[in-house]
Amino acid sequence: MENQSTQAENTATTPPKKKINKRFATIFALIVIGGGLFGFVKWNHAQSHEETDDAQIEGSISPAIPRVSGYVTEIKVRDNQQVKKGDTLLVLDNRDLVIKVAQAEAALLAAQSGLSVAEATTTFSRANIYTTEANVATANAQIEAAKVNVWRATQDYNRYANLIKDHSITQQQFEQAEAGKQTAERQLQVLIEQRNAASKQTGAASSQSNATAQQANVASATIKQRQADLDNANLNLSYAVITAPEDGMVSKVNVQKGQYVQAGQALFSVVHENDVWVVANFKETQLSKMKVGQKVIVTVDALGNHEFEAKLSSFSPATGSRFSLLPPDNASGNFVKVVQRVPVKIEFAQKDELIKNLRPGMNADVDVHLQ
Predict the structure, then answer these.
(1) What is the pLDDT of residues 208-217, one digit of tens each?
(2) Hey, what domains does the chain have and what are their CATH numbers?
C-alpha cells in the first residue's frame, strides 16, 4: 500500500511532456528556407552587380552674373520660370554707359581729324621736297652753264691779255674782257650758293616730312586706341542687359527692382534643361570590377520604381574626402582606417522622356552591371 501511494505521488508531481507545435515548425522551416534562398539570390546578384544608394542627380547650373555694376531697372523673369538661351533676365540702368559711348565716339572723331591733319601736312612736306629737289636740279643746270661762261670768259681774257701787250687792242677792250670774266665767275659763285641753299631746304623738308610721317603714325595708333575704347564702351553697354546663357529653368530670383548690383555678383541661377547625370559614391572596395562603359540601371526616389538606362562614364581622380573643406591627414594622431568612397559619373542614355523630370540634388539608387 505504501509503495502504491508513493508511486501515485511521484506521478502527480512529474510535469507532462509538451507536444511539438507542427505549425510553428512549418513556419520556422519556411523562414529558414526563404532566408537561405534570399541570401543565395543576393550573393549570386552580387557576383555580377555593384550597387549603392549613395548617389544624387547632378546637372549644369549657370549663375546669372552682371558684368557691369548698376541699378536694376527691370526684372523680366520670376521664380521657376522656363527660359530659352538669349532671353532677357534683367536690365540695368545704362545711362552712364551711354554717356561713355558718346565720349568714346567723340574721342575717335578727334583722333581721325588729327590723322587727317597729319596726312595733309605729310603731303605738303613731300611737295616741298619735290620743289626743293627741282630747285637743286635747276641750280645744278645753271651752274654747268655758268661754268661754260666762265671758261669762255677766261679764254677771252687770256687772249686779250696777250693782245694788250702788243697794243693790238685797246685798253677798253681788255677791260671789257676782264669784266666779263669776273662777272661770269661771280655768277657761278651765286649759283653755287643758291644750289647749297636749295640743298639745305631739301634736307629741312625731308626732316619735316619724316616728322609729319611720325605724327601720322602716332595719329593712326591713337585712332586704334580710341576705336578700342569705343568697342569697350559698346561692350559694357551691351552688358546692361543680362540674358540667359542656356535653355533651362530659373531658380529663386534674389534681386529687387532698384537694387544696386556689383559686377561679378551672383544673383540667381539657371538650371540647364535635360543636362543631368548621376554621381554615385561607391566604396573603394567596390571598384575592382567596375569599368568605363558598363551598363547601369538608375532608379530615382522621386519617380518610384522607374528604371533609367545609363552607362558608367568616368571615375573621379581622387576620393570625395580629398575635395572636402578639411581633407583628412592620417600622418598625425591616431589612425583609424575608414573605407573611402570614390565619386563615379554615370550618364543617362538619352531615350527616356522622364529625364526632363529629374532635378539636381535628387536621391538615386545605382546598379552597375559588371558583365
Answers:
(1) 656 666 767 7
(2) 49-91+251-369 (2.40.30.170), 97-238 (1.10.287.620)
Q: Who wins on pLDDT, 161 or 251?
A: 251
Number of C-alpha atoms within 13 angstroms, CB side, residue 310? 28
Closest listed residue to residue 213, CA positions, set 128, 292, 303, 122:
122
Query: Mean per-residue pLDDT for 23-37?
Result: 81
Helix (H) / strand (E) containing 178: helix 171-238
Taking all residues of the chain, what is their mean pLDDT, rounded to a whole number? 82
Kindly calculate the radius of gyration of the chain based on its CA atoms and give it in whole angstroms: 53
Closest C-alpha among 347, 278, 283, 291 to residue 321: 283
8 A C-beta contact, residue 49 and residue 369: yes
Contacts of 72 (CB under 8 A, 6+ apart): 90, 91, 92, 93, 255, 256, 257, 258, 259, 260, 261
**The three grid cell numbers given for residue 162, joined into one nine-digit string:** 696777250
The residue type of 236 is N
User: For residue range 5-23, what is the model confidence (pLDDT) as tens digits?
Assistant: 555 555 555 555 555 567 7
Burial of 121 (C-beta count, 10 Å sphere; 0-12/13-18/19+): middle
pTM for the whole structure? 0.62
Using left for φ > 0, alpha for ψ between -120 and 50, and beta otherwise, residue 367 falls in beta
- Residue 180 CA to residue 183 CA, distance in Å, equals 5
Residue 78 · residue 250 · CB < 8 Å: yes
Gap between the Cα atoms of 275 and 298, Å rounded: 16
Q: Given this model, what pLDDT does residue 262 score? A: 93
User: Looking at the predicted structure, is the pLDDT value of residue 71 above 60?
Assistant: yes
